[in-house]
Write a structure and sequence with these properties.
Layout (H helix, E strand, L loop, with lengths): L18 H11 L2 H14 L3 E4 L8 H25 L5 H10 L5 H12 L11 H8 L3 H12 L11 H8 L5 H12 L1 H5 L3 H8 L3 H12 L21 E5 L4 E5 L6 E4 L1 H8 L4 H38 L1 H6 L9 H8 L3 H8 L3 E4 L2 E4 L7 E3 L5 E3 H13 L9 H12 L5 H10 L5 H4 L4
Parallel strand pairs: 2-5
Antiparallel strand pairs: 1-4, 2-3, 5-6, 7-8
Length: 443
């Protein structure tokens, strides 16, 4: 290796990450909602860029006014009864209403109000009685008395400090079954949760099927008593791609009606174009260039999404004609090689993008799955393997659930699918299915 100083010529190839390229990459991975927000923010920065977020149909004002009056009148008649039944009260409001109708003195209502305002959305209390005593300058006994009152209110389980206390507050004792449930949750909560029931049965002198009955009862309780009071607005998925079966062939189209329409502000541009101020000219030039970059990036985004979607349809025709059961193994690397683009570009393209298909709206990323070998030298997808595992576990004998090794043998024997025990365990975890020891039932 020559370490002597000197001058040499060397030719190298480098990728320069220009501002335009960086912006195109960023817009490609944006979902429809993110792109909508990006364009609105850009319109605030760039006066040459007009974003039309709503489409208003021009109508005869007289007809529109009459129609609006009739619609409003009809909606008022139909909605007043629904408004009576509709309840948007929060958990805090519901609890405060309950203590308002009880004969508590002003001091106790003040402590109760503080405790209610300290609850989280699930109805749990994360403040200690010592903190309540210190903050409100009340005794520990008064704070604990207020907590007892709070925990007697509806919904059952509200005011608990942890899930164990929440379950105990909901157990209606008075029968042998519920008394056993209260004892197990109180004294053997960790063992019960870990399903080490044989140890509990031995120490309490009960049968395993009795503990199974306790488990069924506990599962009927609500671990999040405040969740019913959470009002979240329903969100809807807007597809980016529409794939249809037109009788003889599959068609692919971009759905961009949900995106705002972008226009160049000609009026603003011509108004200041004749200005002799160099700063104004430079500002107009920069904003015009920015507008052109954004338009090119959006068009490039559409083209890339379209190319990837068409390639997916080309490689997965059976899926769109016969259903999800016919999904074939396919990787992003295959798509990138056939399209002549980088694998990361495919990954950005399918990120949070959805396709409306004859079998529902699905995420583009769901079409990609790894390859699993079979005994017939054919290939199947990991998605199909997961489905087979789910079906086997759904129909298993719960008294003798299938172990991961059992699943390996059945998949190979019945379906010819060759997978390792570790792979089965990984797929089972991804499906949210517990291990065989935790699926076992003692009837």
């Amino acid at each position: 290796m020559n370490l002597r100083p000197g001058l040499w010529q060397q030719q190298t190839v480098k990728l320069a990450m220009t501002q335009e390229l960086k912006q195109a990459i960023t817009l490609l991975q944006y979902s429809s909602i993110e792109l909508h927000e990006f364009l609105e923010n850009k319109a605030l920065e760039n006066p040459l860029m007009q974003v039309e977020t709503a489409h208003v149909e021009v109508m005869d004002p007289r007809y529109d006014r009459v129609k609006k009056t009739k619609t409003t009148s009809q909606s008022d008649k139909q909605s007043w009864l629904e408004q009576i039944a509709k309840s948007d009260s929060s958990l805090h409001d519901y609890l405060l209403q309950q203590i308002d109708f009880r004969p508590y003195d002003k001091r106790m209502k003040g402590i109760l109000t503080f405790l209610i305002n300290s609850l989280d959305d699930n109805g749990y209390l994360h403040v200690s009685m010592h903190e309540v005593s210190s903050i409100l300058s009340v005794s520990i006994d008064e704070a604990e008395k207020a907590l007892t009152i709070l925990q007697d209110l509806e919904p059952a389980g509200v005011g608990a400090r942890d899930i164990q206390e929440c379950v105990l507050l909901q157990i209606d004792t008075g029968s042998p079954e519920t008394d056993l449930a209260a004892m197990i949750i109180s004294d053997y909560f960790s063992l019960f949760a870990e399903k080490k029931w044989k140890q509990i049965a031995k120490e309490l002198g009960v049968e395993l099927n009795q503990i199974q009955q306790v488990c069924d009862y506990i599962q009927s309780l609500n671990p999040r008593p405040g969740a019913d009071f959470q009002h979240q607005q329903t969100t809807y998925i807007v597809p980016d791609i529409i794939i249809k079966w037109e009788g003889q062939e599959l068609t692919v189209s971009i759905y961009d009606d949900s995106l705002p329409k972008i226009h160049f502000n000609e009026r603003y541009y011509h108004r200041f174009q004749s200005n002799n101020d160099e700063k104004v000219k430079r500002f107009l030039q920069e904003k015009q260039q920015d507008y052109q970059w954004i338009m090119r990036s959006i068009e490039q985004r559409k083209e890339t999404i379209m190319k990837v979607a068409m390639k997916i349809v080309e490689k997965q025709p059976d899926y769109f004609m016969y259903g999800p059961d016919r999904l074939k193994p396919m990787t992003m690397k295959e798509i990138s090689e056939e399209l002549g683009i980088h694998e990361s570009t495919v990954s950005r393209t399918v990120r949070e993008k959805y396709a409306q298909t004859p079998f529902g709206t699905v995420e583009l990323k769901s079409f990609f799955s790894s390859t699993i070998k079979t005994t017939s030298q054919e290939e199947t997808s990991s998605t199909q393997v997961k489905k087979e595992i789910q079906q086997l576990i759904d129909h298993e004998n719960k008294a003798k659930p299938l172990s991961d090794q059992d699943l390996v043998g059945i998949l190979k024997e019945n379906n010819g699918i060759i997978v390792s025990r570790r792979t089965v365990a990984k797929y089972r975890d991804q499906l949210g299915i517990p291990s065989s020891s935790k699926r076992k039932r003692f009837e």
